[in-house]
Write a structure and sequence with these properties.
Layout (H helix, E strand, L loop, with lengths): L2 E7 L5 E6 L7 E6 L6 E5 L2 E6 L10 E5 L2 E4 L2 E2 L5 H6 L6 E6 L5 H21 L10 E3 L4 E6 L5 E6 L6 H17 L13 H17 L5
Antiparallel strand pairs: 1-2, 1-12, 3-9, 4-5, 6-7, 6-9, 7-8, 10-11, 11-12
Helix pairs in contact: 3-4
Length: 218
C-alpha cells in the first residue's frame, strides 16, 4: 500500500504545494518488436504516446521513454532523431522500445490542480443536497483520490493505492501541519506557495506513518 502524491490547492485553484513520493517507483516496460509495430503511437503534448493496441504491460497512455537504449526527450530521441520516423523505418527492426508513465512537469501539475478545483466546484453545484462539500473521493482500479477542503477554501488532495487505509487521518494531520508551519509563519500569506523545511519534513513523516502503520501520529 502506498501514498503516491499530495497536493495543496489554494482557494483560487492555484497549486501551492505538491509532494510526489512515487518518483522512484515509476513502472517501465521494455519490449522488442518486429515490423510493423503493433501498438499505434501518436504525438500528444510533445510526447509520443500509445493511443491503441495495449499488450504485455504496454498500456494506452504510456509514453515512449527510449528506443534501443537511447532515452527519449519529448517527441525526439536524445540523439536528435524523430521517434515516429525511427519507428516507421523497417530497417530499424527488430527494435527495443521502453514505455512507461512520464513524470508530470510543474506546469502539468498546475494545470491539473486548476482542473480539479473546477470539477470540485461543479460537483458541489450538481449535488442535490444543499451546501454539498464537493468531490471528496474518486476511486479507480489503480488509485484513489481523497480531498478535504478547509473553511478558508484550501484543498488538501491525497492520491494513494486503492487499498490504502488511514487517508482521512492523514488529511486531518496535513491540516494540522499546514496550520502549525504555514499559517503561523508571519511571512506567509494564505495563497502563497508553501516553502518551509519544517512543513516538508513533518509532511513526509506523516506520510511514512500512514504508509507503514495506517495512521498518522500526533
Amino acid at each position: 500500500m502506498t501514498i503516491f502524491s499530495v497536493f495543496v490547492v489554494n482557494r483560487a485553484g492555484g497549486l501551492i504545494y505538491d509532494y510526489d513520493s512515487n518518483n522512484g517507483r515509476r513502472v517501465e516496460t521494455e519490449k522488442t518488436f518486429s515490423f510493423p509495430l503493433e501498438p499505434l503511437l501518436k504525438i500528444f503534448d510533445e510526447r509520443v504516446v500509445v493511443s491503441f493496441g495495449q499488450r504485455d504491460g504496454v498500456k494506452v497512455g504510456h509514453t515512449v521513454l527510449g528506443i534501443n537504449g537511447v532515452p527519449a526527450a519529448g517527441r525526439q530521441l536524445e540523439d536528435g532523431r524523430e521517434i515516429l520516423e525511427v519507428i516507421a523505418n523497417e530497417e530499424n527492426y527488430p527494435i527495443a522500445i521502453k514505455f512507461g508513465r512520464p513524470r508530470l512537469s510543474t506546469n502539468e501539475k498546475i494545470v491539473l490542480a486548476s482542473m480539479f478545483h473546477s470539477l470540485f466546484a461543479i460537483g458541489s453545484q450538481l449535488s442535490p443536497e444543499h451546501k454539498s462539500s464537493g468531490i471528496e473521493v474518486l476511486e479507480t482500479d489503480v488509485f484513489k483520490l481523497c480531498c478535504s477542503q478547509t473553511l478558508t477554501g484550501v484543498k488538501f488532495i491525497v492520491l494513494a493505492d486503492p487499498k490504502q487505509s488511514g487517508i482521512d487521518l492523514l488529511l486531518r494531520k496535513l491540516y494540522e501541519i499546514y496550520g502549525d508551519f504555514a499559517l503561523k509563519n508571519p511571512f506567509y500569506s494564505i495563497d502563497m506557495p508553501i516553502r518551509c523545511e519544517l512543513f516538508d519534513s513533518n509532511l513526509q513523516l506523516a506520510i511514512e506513518q500512514v504508509d507503514k502503520l495506517g495512521f498518522a501520529g500526533m
